[in-house]
Design goal:
The structure holds 2 protein chains of 2 kinds.
Chain A (H helix, E strand, L loop, with lengths): L7 E8 L10 H15 L9 E6 L8 H8 L6 E6 L6 H13 L4 E8 L1 H4 L28 H15 L3 H15 L13 H5 L3 E4 L1 E2 L9 E9 H4 L7 E9 L17 H10 L10 E4 L4 H10 L8 H4 L19 H4 L6 H11 L13 E6 L5 E8 L1
Parallel strand pairs in A: 2-3, 2-4, 9-10
Antiparallel strand pairs in A: 1-7, 1-8, 4-7, 5-6, 8-11, 10-11
Chain B lengths: L11 H5 L7 E5 L5 E2 L14 E5 L3 E10 L13 E8 L6 E4 L9 H4 L5 E9 L2 E8 L7
Antiparallel strand pairs in B: 1-2, 1-3, 4-5, 4-7, 5-6, 7-8
Classes of the chains: A alpha/beta, B mainly beta.
Chain lengths: 386, 142
């Protein structure tokens, strides 16, 4: 029994086509991923009584109501379009877990649909003429690009105050391609060297383009239900052993109290306090890599190594690569599989714990860590086999 | 052309102080907590009595980037430029976003160091004085 009032399990996952070019129809993408996830679980549409998704709200994903209609589901008891605040795609699964555990629903479909255009923060946009609000303090200084510049500042400050090197960041990017080479779904499967990384195009020095994830069109979906019901379904249940959110004080990307980690350390602390497992028990980690800095921060915040110890721990990349003792982002993550914005880390963890990952399968995987977003929007889960 | 701030009442004081060469930050008049970005009430004690007060204009360089890609049309011609955070001496964690004055962005990697002392200066844009920081030791071009 976990800390939840009822145990909850992931019982099905589904992906649409994931591609740089190709199908931009968010309805088709969501329909494909959702149908596959429900069928994967061995369920029928009307077994689903909750739909939750995370989106930016700018046409990047259909709403729950639209998805319900597309799938022909008679009624849903819980639904929520989580708009842009929260631990990215995992937010939908975290909410679904709480809704199921509380008894408000039995079986939830969660999804994150995203387009290449919505996932790309690098565009040059018309300068706002009428500022106002907090943008008064940023737009006049040429601050922009979503989190890009804040992540460049974090990369510089981390190395300045905690030590290590920019090659540490390169290990995240280089390793992502090693895993992606083993994943047919991944958008970027070509190998990458440390030289490629260090010489890649500077965006917000010291942040380079290969510190950033790879925008794609795609959707991933998962089905969650009670652990009790999960025993009778098609796939081996993947139980949610623990989950936690956190924000840190003065939640923000520029002005938050803990600039490097934000709420991530508090999130890790809560997560392990609630868990039946320990960091030593984890067989694979699927940690958000929208920026390389985020993956490194989660590794430390979740206790896989100590704060500031990543440089030594990563062992020139061997630790997190295929064959290493802490296989990281085995799908290639958002850096290489593509920017499915969070939920794909949960789906990959479930596939690993079910032994369905083929060439990239982590042998005898029984426990996985999943974490999404960062700083003021932190969320994480510990997953285990039943 | 770098954009001017607008006439937002909440931030007006921040861009007006430079007319007398001084930087102001919002401060709780009840518990003396400095509040940035501005807020209608003090997050530390919930007092509604908040008002701008002069600060020393001194701080340390918290971190910085050299922008090689612009995200707003007004800054395409400004590339490269530095975006930084200065932590003011008045309170731990009291950070102000800034560009860095008096340093060639192409030399920034060699000249700037996280933790180095910074001081405020002002860049006039239209009727406004945009607070900017420069290294205390930097040669300021005439």
């Amino acid at each position: 029994m976990s800390f939840l009032a009822r145990d909850v399990a992931v019982v099905g996952v589904g992906y649409s086509q994931v591609a740089r070019a190709g199908d931009h129809d968010i309805h088709q993408l969501t329909l494909d991923a959702s149908r596959r996830a429900i069928r994967d679980a061995g369920l029928e549409p009307n077994d689903v009584d909750a739909i939750i998704n995370y989106q930016f709200g700018g046409g990047d994903a259909p709403t729950c109501a639209t998805t319900q209609r597309l799938l022909g589901i008679e009624n849903v008891a819980v639904y929520n379009d989580i708009m842009g605040s929260g631990p990215s795609g995992l937010a939908a699964a975290l909410d679904a877990t709480m809704a199921i555990a509380s008894g408000a629903c039995e079986t939830a479909l969660v999804y994150r649909c995203i387009t290449r255009a919505a996932g790309y923060a690098g565009a040059v946009r018309e300068t706002p003429t009428a500022l106002g609000g907090p943008a008064e303090l940023t737009i006049p200084y040429g601050f922009g690009g979503g989190l890009i510049q804040t992540m460049g500042m974090r990369k510089r400050r981390r190395v300045a105050v905690l030590g290590g090197s920019y090659e540490d960041y390169g290990h995240i990017a280089v390793t992502a391609r090693k895993w992606a080479a083993l994943n047919e779904r991944a958008a970027l499967r070509s190998p990458l060297t440390m030289d490629d990384y260090m010489n890649s195009r500077p965006i917000a020095e010291p942040l380079v383009v290969l510190d950033c994830d790879y925008p794609v069109n795609g959707c991933c979906a998962a089905v969650l239900t009670t652990a009790e019901r999960a025993r009778d379904l098609a796939q081996a249940p993947v139980v949610i052993d623990s989950m936690a959110y956190s924000t840190g004080r003065y939640s923000d990307w520029l002005y938050n109290d803990d600039f490097l980690y934000g709420g991530m350390i508090a999130c890790g602390k809560l997560l392990w306090e609630r868990s039946s497992l320990r960091p030593d028990d984890v067989d694979t980690a699927q940690l958000y890599d929208g920026f390389t800095h985020i993956a490194i921060s989660w590794i430390e915040a979740l206790g896989l190594c100590g704060i500031g110890e990543f440089h030594d721990w990563v062992d020139d990349g061997r630790r997190i690569a295929p064959g290493g003792s802490m296989p990281l982002n085995t799908s290639g993550g958002q850096l290489a599989e593509g920017r499915l914005h969070g939920l794909a880390f949960l789906c990959e963890a479930a596939l690993q714990l079910q032994g369905r990952c083929g060439a990239r399968q982590v042998p005898d995987a029984r426990a996985a860590l999943v974490a999404n977003a960062a700083g003021p929007q932190s969320g994480a889960m510990v997953l285990r086999t039943a | 052309m770098r954009p001017e701030p607008s006439l937002d009442d909440v931030h007006r004081f921040f861009f007006e102080g430079g007319s007398t060469g001084s930087l102001s930050i919002l401060r709780c008049q009840s518990c003396a907590f400095w509040i940035h970005p501005p807020s209608p009430a003090c997050p530390a004690c919930w007092s509604d009595d908040v008002a701008p007060e002069l600060v020393s204009g001194r701080g340390t360089l918290y971190s910085f980037i050299v922008a090689r890609q612009a995200f707003a049309t007004a800054f395409v011609e400004e590339l490269p430029y530095v975006v930084a955070l200065t932590e003011l001496v008045e309170q731990p964690g009291l950070r102000v976003l800034t560009n860095v004055a008096g340093v060639d962005p192409d030399q920034a990697e060699d000249v700037l160091r996280v933790g180095m002392p910074m001081e405020v200066t002002f860049e006039q844009r239209g009727a406004w004085f945009v607070p900017q920081f420069r290294p205390v030791t930097a040669e300021v071009p005439a």
